[in-house]
Design brief:
heterodimer; A: mainly alpha; 434 Repressor (Amino-terminal Domain); two-stranded antiparallel sheet; 54% helix; 8% strand; globular; disordered C terminus; B: 218 residues; mainly alpha; 6 helices; disordered N terminus; transmembrane helix (chain B); DUF2975 domain-containing protein (chain B)
Chain lengths: 79, 218
């Protein structure tokens, strides 16, 4: 997918670990790493809200769009 | 209440709008009052629920069928070596009983058909047990359940089709005049039940897709 979650970069800038963020946001570390590695299919607004609140950033700081050759939403390919 | 969405088929990932799910005319009050207690009189899923009780019943039935199939298989093997002479079976038809010599072929056919029949139902119960295990764990839309339901449908088709063919064979060759030949009308119920199982499998596929999607929603 062409949408990438830049959780790594923001975490490094804030000098925060994934575990700490998970504690503060109320999301499990497993789910946060799904988000970080780009395996997530969707993000709830409530999660985005909590992430932005704890990281003190805007949604645009977390998400970037990177068009590429295989950027089609390959729903059927996985099924 | 409409049973079909206005546009069909739904696109992938498109949510069913609640508009068509809401009935145009609500059920009359007396009907609602009658069906209200039927909503959830017991827990259907999860540990300690009705499905766990059913799972135990399925376990027992599975073991019984396993024993019966094994016994029949042993008899089938034994029948190959048993010498047969002067054994007659009585076939009772509408015109009264009739003596029929029990040939080796007849015996092998009967035992083989019975073994296949019970074996088929054993396979169905095997898949059903696994499905009910996931129900007991409270996870009905496990991705494997789609495959299991399709297996059940396929086995049911083979078993019921085989029964139909075997009955036709018996009526035509083994005991002509005793049994009436099978009509196509007797295939209707099996066909419908098999189709319903296949449709249910697709329903579970949709459920498994939604479950996967919700798992990947953070």
């Amino acid at each position: 997918m062409a949408i990438r979650v830049q959780l790594d970069r923001v975490l490094v800038e804030r000098r925060m670990s994934l575990t700490e963020l998970a504690d503060r946001v109320g999301v499990t570390v497993a789910n946060l790493s799904i988000l970080k590695t780009g395996k997530a299919r969707a993000v709830r607004f409530s999660t985005l809200d909590a992430l932005c609140r704890e990281l003190d950033c805007q949604p645009g700081d977390l998400l970037v769009h990177e068009p590429g050759p295989g950027d089609a939403f390959d729903d059927d390919a996985e099924a | 209440m409409r049973l079909l969405p206005p546009r069909h088929p739904l696109k992938r990932g498109e949510a069913l709008s609640p508009k068509w799910l809401t009935p145009k005319w609500p059920a009359p009050r007396w009907l609602r009052a009658m069906t209200a207690p039927l909503k959830a009189p017991f827990r259907a899923l999860g540990p300690g629920s009705v499905s766990s009780v059913l799972k135990v019943a399925l376990d027992v039935a599975y073991i019984l069928l396993w024993l019966i199939t094994g016994l029949l298989l042993l008899l089938l093997v034994a029948a190959v070596f048993i010498p047969l002479d002067n054994v007659n079976i009585t076939v009772s038809g509408e015109s009264g009983g009739r003596q029929l010599p029990l040939t080796r072929m007849l015996l092998l056919f009967g035992l083989g058909a019975a073994t296949a029949y019970f074996g088929g139902f054993m396979l169905i119960l095997r898949s059903l047990r696994r499905i009910f295990r996931t129900l007991t764990m409270g996870d009905p839309f496990h991705p494997d359940n789609v495959r299991r339901l399709r297996q059940i449908g396929l086995t049911l088709a083979v078993v019921t089709g085989g029964v139909w063919l075997a009955q036709g064979f018996v009526a035509a060759r083994l005991a002509p005049g005793v049994m009436d030949p099978q009509g196509l009308g007797e295939l209707l119920t099996p066909i419908f039940s098999v189709l319903i199982v296949f449709v249910l499998a697709e329903v579970f596929r949709e459920g498994a897709r939604l479950r996967r999607e919700s798992e990947l929603t953070i």
